[in-house]
């Protein structure tokens, strides 16, 4: 175990703190990978000033490590509210304590949480959690305060540095960082839909209808048991939305990864918000294997990358495509991503329909070279995504490996896939058209290869480290050096002009969901 003196040694030289929920190698999503690409690509002089602070559920004590020249301080993560004054690891250890200790440790925080000005919100959250848990669980963002152990740890770390600027990457870090003193300059990095959709999985869709404006109608779908349950859930989710928006407005500048996100965040943060669009970096060309990659033994493999859940649409795709898959034994659908519940549902459905041998699970592929090798082995990359994808790394990685993508035209996917040029976009929810597009590319090797080559050129020209990571770093440097902010980088006029035009041109078959 590292000594505390060693862990905090040299922090006085750190001037910029980056707060992230997770960070490689303890990362499961594209957001963390994108952040690491940007920071590790920074000049060494800047990296020496940077400290990444992240949180880990398994830790009882802080630990510090370096990854590709990036200094990372990993702190114990907080237990779920109302026990978030202690770490997750400590909270789990209570299970091995005596019965009296467990009751005292679990009951007192619940009772203590009621001594607050927000007693109605706290009672609603407790009632939902212990008596009427809605679909997706209970959101408690609005109850985050300075008693949270992550906030206490972050304040302690910053006090040991010469920090003047904090960068908060993604929603939970933004909520936490917004609590810090106002004398610190703050940059928010928004990579998801949580500021425009307060729902637990932020899909921006209720049933089969995409949301253009939030009316909280999703509460009827997530809390169906009783009118009181729906009322409590509506109360809580409205407070969550208000807290998220207020937190975002506490930041001096906001970085977003797509025009789609920029338009949504403009409506939340206001017309005068300083918004900078910097796309995710596709990856590093060195991670893609040059030359031939082992084939799939005559199979027509369709690779679907991403977390296995309702929003990503994997189960619904298999359900809709079962006859198409079964019609040709060469067809295989390969899923690379984590999600035990959806995986089990797909496995049960595949077994009941006689296609188990044509459904393959790679689970989460942590190593980027292994992921790119899987992409290169596949004939086609598919994204049957139901939700409005904020930006999406998959088309970037597929393009870097020279592979075409078939996807529903939703959200930021309409910016990373150019229809009939780098892939095929299909009207959201039209599974017949989706399968027809897959069939077209599987049958036409020349067209599929052409799209893949076009995708490689497009991604290398627009999502390289020079175009993305360096812009990210330069934004930080400029903001760090500039005492006053100038006019918004993405003005309302530019958002309604160039950004929307690009999205329209990229999705001739999309229905306006983006």
């Amino acid at each position: 175990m590292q000594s505390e003196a060693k862990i905090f040694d040299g922090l006085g030289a750190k001037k910029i703190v980056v707060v992230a929920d997770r960070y490689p190698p303890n990362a499961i999503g594209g957001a963390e990978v994108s952040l690491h690409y940007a920071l590790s690509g920074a000049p060494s002089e800047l990296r020496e000033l940077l400290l990444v602070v992240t949180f880990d559920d398994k830790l009882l004590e802080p630990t510090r490590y370096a990854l590709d020249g990036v200094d990372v301080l990993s702190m114990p993560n907080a237990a779920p509210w109302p026990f978030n004054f202690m770490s997750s690891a400590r909270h789990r250890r209570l299970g091995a304590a005596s019965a009296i200790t467990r009751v005292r440790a679990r009951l007192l925080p619940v009772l203590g949480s009621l001594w607050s000005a927000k007693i109605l919100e706290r009672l609603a959250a407790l009632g939902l959690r212990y008596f009427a848990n809605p679909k997706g669980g209970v959101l408690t963002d609005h109850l985050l305060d300075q008693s949270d152990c992550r906030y206490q740890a972050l304040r302690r770390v910053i006090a040991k540095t010469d920090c003047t600027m904090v960068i908060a990457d993604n929603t939970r870090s933004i909520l936490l960082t917004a609590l810090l003193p106002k004398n610190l300059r703050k940059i928010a990095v928004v990579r998801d839909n949580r500021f425009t959709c307060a729902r637990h999985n932020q899909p921006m869709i209720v049933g089969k209808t995409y949301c253009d404006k939030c009316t909280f109608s999703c509460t009827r779908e997530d809390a169906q048991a009783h009118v009181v349950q729906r009322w409590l859930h509506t109360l809580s989710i409205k407070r969550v939305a208000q807290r998220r928006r207020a937190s975002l407005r506490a930041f001096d500048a906001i970085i977003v990864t797509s025009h789609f996100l920029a338009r949504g965040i403009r409506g939340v943060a206001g017309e005068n918000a300083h918004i900078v669009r910097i796309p995710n970096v596709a990856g590093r060309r060195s991670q893609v294997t040059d030359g031939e990659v082992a084939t799939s033994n005559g199979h027509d493999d369709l690779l679907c990358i991403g977390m296995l859940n309702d929003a990503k649409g994997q189960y619904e795709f298999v359900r809709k495509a079962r006859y198409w898959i079964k019609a040709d034994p060469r067809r295989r659908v390969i899923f690379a991503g984590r999600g035990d519940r959806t995986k089990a549902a797909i496995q049960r459905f595949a077994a009941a329909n006689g296609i188990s041998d044509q459904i393959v699970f790679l689970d989460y592929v942590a190593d980027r070279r292994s992921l790119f090798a899987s992409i290169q082995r596949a004939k086609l990359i598919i994204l049957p995504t139901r939700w409005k994808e904020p930006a999406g790394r998959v088309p970037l990685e597929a393009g870097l490996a020279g592979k075409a993508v078939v996807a529903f035209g939703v959200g930021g996917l309409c910016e990373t896939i150019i229809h009939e040029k780098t892939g095929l976009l299909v009207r959201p929810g039209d599974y017949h058209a989706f399968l027809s597009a897959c069939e077209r590319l599987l049958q036409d090797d020349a067209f599929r290869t052409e799209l893949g080559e076009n995708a490689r050129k497009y991604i290398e020209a627009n999502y390289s480290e020079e175009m993305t990571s360096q812009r990210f770093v330069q934004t930080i440097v400029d903001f760090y050096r500039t005492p006053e902010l100038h006019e918004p980088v993405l003005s309302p006029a530019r958002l309604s002009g160039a950004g929307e035009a690009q999205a329209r041109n990229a999705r001739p078959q999309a229905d306006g969901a983006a």
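Confidence is low (pLDDT under 50) at residues 485-514. Residues 70 and 263 are 32 Å apart (CA to CA).
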